[in-house]
User: Fold this.
Amino acid sequence: MARVAVDAVGGDRGPETIVAGAAEAASAGIEPVLFGPPGLDTLGLPLVEATQAIEMDESPVEAVRAKSDSSLVRAVRAVAEGEAEAVVSAGSTGAMLAASLLHIRRLPGVFRPAIAVVIPARLKPVVLIDSGANPDARPEHLVQFAHMGAVFAEEILEVSDPEVRLLSIGEEDEKGNQLTLDSHELLRASGLRFTGNTESRSLLEGEVDVVVTDGFTGNIALKAIEGTIRSLLEGIRAEIESSVRGRLGGLLIRPAAQRVRHRLDPETYGGAYLLGLRGLVVIAHGSSSSLAIANAIRLAARGVEHRVVERLGERVPERVASPQG
Amino acid sequence: MARVAVDAVGGDRGPETIVAGAAEAASAGIEPVLFGPPGLDTLGLPLVEATQAIEMDESPVEAVRAKSDSSLVRAVRAVAEGEAEAVVSAGSTGAMLAASLLHIRRLPGVFRPAIAVVIPARLKPVVLIDSGANPDARPEHLVQFAHMGAVFAEEILEVSDPEVRLLSIGEEDEKGNQLTLDSHELLRASGLRFTGNTESRSLLEGEVDVVVTDGFTGNIALKAIEGTIRSLLEGIRAEIESSVRGRLGGLLIRPAAQRVRHRLDPETYGGAYLLGLRGLVVIAHGSSSSLAIANAIRLAARGVEHRVVERLGERVPERVASPQG
Assistant:
């Protein structure tokens, strides 16, 4: 039974959406505990009252320090204090990072936590790390992100000896910016199965298991993919609806189109792990629907079940201390 | 009549494809001149013989210096020496940049040339600059890219007072990496109609006229969009073909799907301008088909017709010298 602390306030669609998602995820194996304002209707789920809320536009570090009774900070502290095994929030990513660093703290040896997203690519799932926690990162950080991504692929995606590539602007070793050129050399000596650079155009193909990058580049790539999927499907829909022939065809292909959309929809995978901490933290999209929240909670429970934090604790410091291992 | 020097050797599909594209583009207003090996069948177009070829994996600067009789260098020199008004190559972007800097040279006041790509977005075309020339760039470079992109939008896309945004990982001013944070401040003081950050998820929507970024980030975003379009259309096709119902629907929506694909296909816009030089340089995709080459040559001719180089020469140095203008 995984006890998951859920921040009921974070997210663009209001607490009702979060509560609905939590109720949907509740099962024999998952016990969501909601953190939100007194009097919130939790559909029968347990509520821990929190009188403050962190807004999306607040400075993360200041908000986390000033609002110790916010739903986000209280939910994070529940993991730090052993009252929950994982935390899920659709609130500010920066505030989640700040609260997690302050209360849950980093695993020994970890320089910086990083966000790992599983991209539902065509051939196989791809772990993209870092997807947004570290807008500025150094080569030694990228090497550690790669190690964390590899452990994640092994433990959660059950891939043995995962193949790792570096996101860059050309497959040739010498293509990239100074960060990727320096990281490339370190990754060659990392002991990982590092097979060179990959381009963002291959991300949805799923040719490798782990793609490592800094948080700025990873976030740009991820959002470009998401936006393109949305714009393209919308463009096709509008064209189809502009003729009778198209509308009839559209009815016939609807099941096929929905299968593709379902596979690629960010709501299907729901959230991302913030890796490198002493507790399990899942960050959901700010715009999450109740389905996305339910899936983020399930993702958190899966991480608990697979003991992701313990595995990272056992293996990342060892790998970093002994790069050839 | 625009005389366009065309490198017949660059590109993954061989000289025949380039020649076919040049023949397709040849018209009353466009005179392509091919640069390639002696004896090349040019379908009746003029040929300037070049005995060397620059390969994609060569070091750009060394290759350009060592191979003065390569098709790429000879085509670039034709513009530098006034024998042609524009040059088009599907060869190495790095070699085109190196040859252009060496022979055509920068416009006065320009720090670095940048690649401007027109993204065929939903609401209106968007100029993305830099799309790959400068993997590492400084804030003052980004400001100049923004000025060049704005002039391009005014002169070629005929947008008055174009709206400029900075590509980052959040719309809030304080979201980004150090480069975007520093650039944001400079752009606020640039005299451009700068309206803040934009995210990569909006690029295909077309909400603004110019999106400015460094060459690494721009290239990552552009290739993520291209790859997603390809993977998504392929995914839909495969799903549709897996059932009789889907195949029938697929036949009915084919015209609609082709209109969308045609609008978004990189082959439709064909190439990208390398801006900031004393001559017009168009870079085509390495994988260009003959249609893409023809469109890249037409793009070059349009730049000649609209006097893009002269306009940049008149306006960019002035704008950079007087940031409040």
